[in-house]
């Protein structure tokens, strides 16, 4: 006999979707917000020569700037007002979250609940403004170093660039928060997702043009397509993988003739608890120093800036090593932030639940932490392999970054997370409909 959840899932169809008014409002709001974001990636900054900029970007698009362009949805290539995208916010989030582990003040705020979280978010916003301003000034100085790109170089251009790019990043940060609160899915992840997907047709067309010109063989393109399909299937399989810990609840006598409890459930531990955060954080940290260095080195800057650009170029050994190291680090770090074994064990003990063979309390927390650490090792290696192996292969074939492991992981993971939230809203709407029908039947009786 099918369970109640399975029966409910079987009844989900287009009619159930049409009745979910709240879900439709959220979807339309999300689509409208993403449309505003895409329009902003086509609004150019003032004082830029588009022709000269296109030539400079064409020469540098195969390096770290091309990767930055992917995350910004093509805004870097057009030097639009959203050229910095959401990366300064992600970098600020990394710094603040790292600080919570070493700063007693931030750690105390983290334990204060919702009020403390609001203060930490405010610190993150201040950090975003600072990082965005620094990166924007570096971009402005770098653009001035490129011959003919800036129409009227000077402090006015630098100041207007800093204000424009910083304002664009703050607007995207606010837009992402609005999507999370009033739309569907995680707003920041969806903004990155929209940028990658929107530029995908152009990347496909560019790859086919390279094939037509003979720069890429048809066999290589077919191999990349097969690899992309295989990576997508592997990501879906690993993202759905869980380790379920059996939780048992003892029987309790609530009255003389009535017993309650005695049932069992599972505590699901995802293989990849951190989701797409590790590759995004790793890419953001690698982009932060090289954003300024890449432009400054080409504009006749110091020799050490040129060395940074060379050694951290996309596909170089040092870049790959740092990328893998940061992915592994953030996989464990972010998992430790979002999942607290001690808190989980205390909640189980509070409600009488226990893991068979494990003493409630501290021993349960140790066991959960032990299991979580082991599966996080597998999850971190999985993320590193998915992100790095395709990048190594693609770096030697001059294929656009949109076919890389990082972009595929982001697209697939964000899609799965958004679909799960849509299903959750459909379930809620279905339950509300069942409750209303039950009330109507009760009134008729």
TrEMBL record:
<feature type="transmembrane region" description="Helical">
    <location>
        <begin position="318"/>
        <end position="339"/>
    </location>
</feature>
<keyword id="KW-0813">Transport</keyword>
<keyword id="KW-1133">Transmembrane helix</keyword>
<protein>
    <recommendedName>
        <fullName>Protein translocase subunit SecY</fullName>
    </recommendedName>
</protein>
<dbReference type="InterPro" id="IPR023201">
    <property type="entry name" value="SecY_dom_sf"/>
</dbReference>
<feature type="transmembrane region" description="Helical">
    <location>
        <begin position="155"/>
        <end position="175"/>
    </location>
</feature>
<keyword id="KW-1003">Cell membrane</keyword>
<feature type="transmembrane region" description="Helical">
    <location>
        <begin position="216"/>
        <end position="237"/>
    </location>
</feature>
<comment type="subunit">
    <text>Component of the Sec protein translocase complex. Heterotrimer consisting of SecY, SecE and SecG subunits. The heterotrimers can form oligomers, although 1 heterotrimer is thought to be able to translocate proteins. Interacts with the ribosome. Interacts with SecDF, and other proteins may be involved. Interacts with SecA.</text>
</comment>
<comment type="similarity">
    <text>Belongs to the SecY/SEC61-alpha family.</text>
</comment>
<dbReference type="InterPro" id="IPR002208">
    <property type="entry name" value="SecY/SEC61-alpha"/>
</dbReference>
<dbReference type="GO" id="GO:0006605">
    <property type="term" value="P:protein targeting"/>
</dbReference>
<keyword id="KW-0812">Transmembrane</keyword>
<feature type="transmembrane region" description="Helical">
    <location>
        <begin position="187"/>
        <end position="204"/>
    </location>
</feature>
<comment type="function">
    <text>The central subunit of the protein translocation channel SecYEG. Consists of two halves formed by TMs 1-5 and 6-10. These two domains form a lateral gate at the front which open onto the bilayer between TMs 2 and 7, and are clamped together by SecE at the back. The channel is closed by both a pore ring composed of hydrophobic SecY resides and a short helix (helix 2A) on the extracellular side of the membrane which forms a plug. The plug probably moves laterally to allow the channel to open. The ring and the pore may move independently.</text>
</comment>
<feature type="transmembrane region" description="Helical">
    <location>
        <begin position="123"/>
        <end position="143"/>
    </location>
</feature>
<dbReference type="InterPro" id="IPR030659">
    <property type="entry name" value="SecY_CS"/>
</dbReference>
<keyword id="KW-0811">Translocation</keyword>
<keyword id="KW-0472">Membrane</keyword>
<dbReference type="GO" id="GO:0043952">
    <property type="term" value="P:protein transport by the Sec complex"/>
</dbReference>
<dbReference type="Pfam" id="PF00344">
    <property type="entry name" value="SecY"/>
</dbReference>
<dbReference type="GO" id="GO:0065002">
    <property type="term" value="P:intracellular protein transmembrane transport"/>
</dbReference>
<feature type="transmembrane region" description="Helical">
    <location>
        <begin position="27"/>
        <end position="45"/>
    </location>
</feature>
<dbReference type="InterPro" id="IPR026593">
    <property type="entry name" value="SecY"/>
</dbReference>
<keyword id="KW-0653">Protein transport</keyword>
<dbReference type="GO" id="GO:0005886">
    <property type="term" value="C:plasma membrane"/>
</dbReference>
